[in-house]
Amino acid sequence: MIRINWTTVMFVAAQGILCGQVPSLDRGSNDSDSITYLTTIADEVSYYTDGTTEWDTLWGRVQLIQDSLYMFCDRAVVEDKTFAEAYEEVVIIHRDSILIFSDTLLYDGAEETAILTSRVILQEGERNVYTQELEYYIPSREAIYRSGGTLTQRDQVVTSQYGYYNTITKTAELSGNVDYRDTSMTVYTDSIVYYTDADQINLVSPSRISRDSVEIYAQSGVIRMKIEQGVLSGDVQVKTQNELITSGILAFDGIKNSYQFWVQPKAILSDGIATADTMIYYRDEDVVELIGHASYVGNQDVVDAPFIRYNLSTEDYATKGRANIHSGDTDMSANDVFIDDSGATVLQGQVSIREDSGKTNIYSDYAISHDQGTQIYSVNGQPLMQYVLTEDTLSIRADTLLQRDSTITEQDTIGEFYRALNDVTLYSGNVSGRADLFDYSISDSMIIMIGSPVLWSDSIQLSADTITMYISGGSVKRIDQSSNAFILSPDEQGNLNQIKCKHISNRISNGKIDSTFAERNVELCFLVMKDGKYEAVNRTTSSSMVFTFDNADIESVRMDGNQESNIYTYTLGMDISRYYLEGYEWRITERPTKGSFARIMDSTPQLQPYDE
Fold it and tell me: How many helices (H) and strands (E) does the chain have?
């Protein structure tokens, strides 16, 4: 039975007050043909209209249905079969996999948007979102809270001021006093991206991480929670009870309980300071390994070596590779150095000892230095040490060169690869270059160069944020340039033809660039010449271009997409460089030579893989 009385009218009029407890929705005009109206079911229904708008007031076991969305409550008011306000024991079921509970619901059926308030819980499998106010967008299956909430998954709990969760991509973007906790670590930060299916969080703001009485600070990073591994960057600090280690990049392994530091790592120890190209801190052993240009400045000794292993508990150390030690008025060097059980310093392999300001110089294969003096054995000459890698007719030289054998993890197989760090140079026939870091995958025959990378093929210079070289049949077959890609090709008078874009792929034949495909925001600066004289400067932009080369000269150009060209007629004395592309840099003085590699390779032993 339909009842219309003053109680119903007053209840509808009171909606304005009740709505003040939840955010309002925009109830603008909509195309009625595109709206699926709400289906309502209830124990009692009261109907009211003012001639333009209809209201249904529902009590007792209320159901509101729209497509695959089901809403349940004890009391509701529905306007024009489109807008609904629901109260008391509100439940939303969406696509059978998403459940949302709250005390109050404001639903816009035209926009398919729900705003829930008071004791809100969103459940999806093992994931739960708790908050006091939640916006849920039906088509995109996105949930947002803006005034504090908690996301849980198994033993993982994350609280934040703002939260966005996409139930399709299983991605949460959380910000504002973010607090992440599980059984192994705690993370405090301002913003993270949480990939719940992958159990991965991306730190996008300065963060503090606590695990196993170790405090970690970093500007950004990625942490894979299930396997307890992460890579952090930007002014990284790791604090233990007595030590502080800083670096630009940190990779940690929670299962091995190890921390690996790259980019100018520095350790402030209880009895000294240590630096190296790479550091590894093994928490369980309480040991720090210094790898590449390692230096330890202690209370009594100053040690420099390619590798130093320092025990934080005993304050003993051991070295591998040519080590230099300064102790009092004695300077020592050897291939290997360690502290034995008696506390003596043991030196092995082509040992050199310089005492009394150079008055005494000793060379040997083996030596022990202790309080009673130094024991010297088997005198030999001192070798030259230098790391060099030569593979696939390709030579790579660097301050530090790390080699890893093939390993198999639960996720995938990691092939054997070399990592070259700090002032890395490369030479292969007509191709040469340099960068701050090279990754060379043996199985993929691929080299990735980052850190101001630059290459030369004959006289053509290639640069970008990242350069990837593909090797086949003992030679370079393709070179890709990604982000801020530049090609500079000098003409016979030393001026530069230039290509600039987001990505470039170059095909190499006989050590020379045969053709080039440039795409995304391509800019070309081409110097037009005839009979050895300049005629014009051509500045052209296009979405993509294909170039062919003949002896480092651009032979042909094909353009795709929208094009825009400006031709500047050359006049005598004109400064051509004023038309060069913004950001170009001619770095020919950095180009490595074959001679520098030949001298080192003739006198250097082969680098052996390092066995941890």
Answer: 3, 47
- Angle in degrees, CA 262, 263, 269, rounded to 5: 70
User: What is the Cα–Cα distance from 458 to 428, expressed in whole angstroms?
Assistant: 11
Q: Residue 161 and residue 174: Cα distance in Å, rounded?
A: 8
CB atoms inside a 10 Å sphere around CB 49? 11
Q: If we measure between CA atoms, which residue out of 467, 415, 423 comes closest to residue 443? A: 415
Amino acid identity, position 207: S
16-20, 226-230, 306-310, 516-520: least confident range:
16-20
User: 486-510 as b/e, with b when 16 or more CB fall inside 10 Å?
Assistant: bbbbbbeeebbbbbbbebbbbebee
Long-range contacts of 316-319 (CB under 8 A, 24+ apart): 316/343, 319/294
| C-beta separation of 429 from 508 below 8 A | no
Cβ contact 327:342 at 8 Å:
no
State whether residue 17 is helix, strand or coil.
helix
Instruction: Please provide residue 608's backbone torsions phi and psi, each rounded to the nearest 5 degrees.
Output: -100, 150
Q: pTM, whole model, 2 decimals?
A: 0.53
pLDDT tens by residue, 10-49:
333 333 323 333 344 444 444 445 667 899 999 999 999 9
CA distances in angstroms from 367 to 304, 370, 425, 431, 531, listed in the order given: 17, 10, 36, 45, 72
| Closest to 510 (Cα-Cα) out of 543, 481, 474 | 474
* End-to-end C-alpha distance for the chain, whole angstroms: 82
Token pair in block for residue 510: 């006989």
| Separation of alpha carbons 596 and 427, rounded Å | 10
Q: Name every residue whose Cβ is closer than 8 Å to that of residue 538 and which is 6 or more positions away in sequence.
A: 524, 525, 526, 527, 528, 565, 566, 567, 568
What is the pLDDT of the chain when averaged over all its residues? 81
Q: Which pLDDT score, from 0 to 100, does residue 362 have?
A: 57
Length of the chain: 612
Strands 454-457 and 407-408: what pairing?
unpaired
Instruction: State residue 152's pLDDT score.
Output: 95
The structure tokens listed for 113 are 């948007």
For residue 509, what are the contacts with CB-CB under 8 A and spacing of at least 6? none
What are the backbone angles phi and psi of residue 596, rounded to the nearest 5°?
-65, -30
Of the spans 187-196, 367-376, 426-435, which averages the highest pLDDT?
187-196
